[in-house]
Amino acid sequence: ADIIFPDALPSEEDFRAFAKAVPGPKMANMTEFGRTPYFTASEFQDMGYDIVIWPATSMRIAAGAMTELYTHIRENGGAQALLGKMPTRAELYETIGYYDYEALDKGIAKTVVPEAPGE
């Protein structure tokens, strides 16, 4: 196996015992509100784990932010007061690499769509 993943171990002792007993790279899954207590990436590393994932954390944070947004809109009629919590368009584009994709698209379009004579 490329990596071993023990699911929902309930204690630090169980994580340490598993890491000691099972050879090879190991991955831990930090899911809020599950059976596993909360551990940091450093704590998992100290227990013998090579990779830690937080598969639902960003979704939960996003859901909370959307709830806050739509509650605010319902109660205040708009979202202007929340602008400070939002990335600007430039910040968003930088984060997602928008201009890199735009450049890639232009390059692909040139290879797919023939140029008109004289261009």
Structural class by sheet pairing and helices? mainly alpha
Mean pLDDT: 93
Low-confidence stretches at least 5 residues in length (pLDDT < 50)? none
Binned strand content:
5-15%
Task: State the separation between the terminal residues, measured CA to CA.
Answer: 54 Å
Quaternary organisation of the protein chains:
single chain
Quick one: overall form? flat
Helix content: 40-55%
Q: How is the main sheet built?
A: 2 strands, parallel
What is the alpha-carbon Rg in Å?
23 Å
Task: Draw up the topology in text.
Blueprint: H1 12-21, E1 27-29, H2 41-47, E2 51-53, H3 57-76, H4 89-96, H5 98-112
Parallel strand pairs: 1-2
List keywords for this structure.
119 residues; mainly alpha; 2 domains; two-stranded parallel ribbon; 5 helices; 2 strands; flat
Summarize the structure.
The protein is mainly α and 119 residues long.
Describe the structure in your own words.
- The protein is mainly alpha-helical.
- The protein folds into two domains: 12-53, no CATH class; 57-112, no CATH class.
- It is 50% helix and 5% strand.
- The chain has a two-stranded parallel ribbon.
- The protein is flat and about 70 Å long.
